[in-house]
Amino acid sequence: xxxxxxxxxxxxxxxxxxxxxxxxxxxxxxxxxxxxxxxxxxxxxxxxxxxxxxxxxxxxxxxxxxxxxxxxxxxxxxxxxxxxxxxxxxxxxxxxxxxxxxxxxxxxxxxxxxxxxxxxxxxxxxxxxxxxxxxxxxxxxxxxxxxxxxxxxxxxxxxxxxxxxxxxxxxxxxxxxxxxxxxxxxxxxxxxxxxxxxxxxxxxxxxxxxxxxxxxxxxxxxxxxxxxxxxxxxxxxxxxxxxxxxxxxxxxxxxxxxxxxxxxxxxxxxxxxxxxxxxxxxxxxxxxxxxxxxxxxxxxxxxxxxxxxxxxxxxxxxxxxxxx
Length: 324
Known about the structure:
The protein is 36% helix and 21% strand. It is built from ten helices and 13 strands. Residues 315-324 have low confidence and may be disordered. A nine-stranded mixed beta sheet has the order 5-4-1-8-9-10-11-12-13, sandwiched between helices. With 324 residues, the protein is α/β, with parallel strands linked by helices. The N and C termini lie far apart (48 Å). Helix 5 links the parallel strand 9 (161-164) and strand 10 (186-190).
């Protein structure tokens, strides 16, 4: 293992229903399948763990059936929990409805992961060589946002901090969001989240504003674009669009988490940012060909996929040359 990821986000249990399409208001649908799986921040942790990072969890799990389920899932992936379980409540859960076009709709119920205090986080010790990750979900909870923001601000300057604002960014008070962005080493978000922070515009323009006006300490920004790939903007001024990979998607749940986990893992092993982004694009592409949010591939699977796609691109290039 080349580095350790300290994840101070949240993990929940996903109750996943697959349906052909969302029901109209006042109507009912029968799901074609159902599964209970570990979700939330667990998906990102799995992506990092399966690609050569040691992962530890610094958030809080609950006491009850959902907390027990998550602990078992963590143990199966070799992920240690640093904090004691909440004696007062169970872990939260999320109902995920996956429609026939592979898109998803969520309804969540917060639990122990939504109450994070500095006292609870005392066992979460960060050492040189660690990477730290947090998400907007934990910052959106009134019972955890102040403690987590303060803890992030106290991180050693040499420890990289990665932040994903997530779709709940509008629920994060702006002063809290600004404090966390000011500490961010790498920001990974989608186009809507980037615009929520820095205003509308094309991806490159927004990325420039993110670095210049909101993330003064950042080494770079990644704006994810799903199947189209991502844009990487570096603090030194370099910008590059990293193409995605066309695959038959069956479930997009967890693709963004997989992308971030693989990207951080790549960076921690010394990959240049754009190479790490391509690696993350491949990881996300593989994940959407599989059911379940924690469907991240292993490093070997990603490397084999990249070799195959590279060979296919080379063969296509030769065909193009032969016809001209």
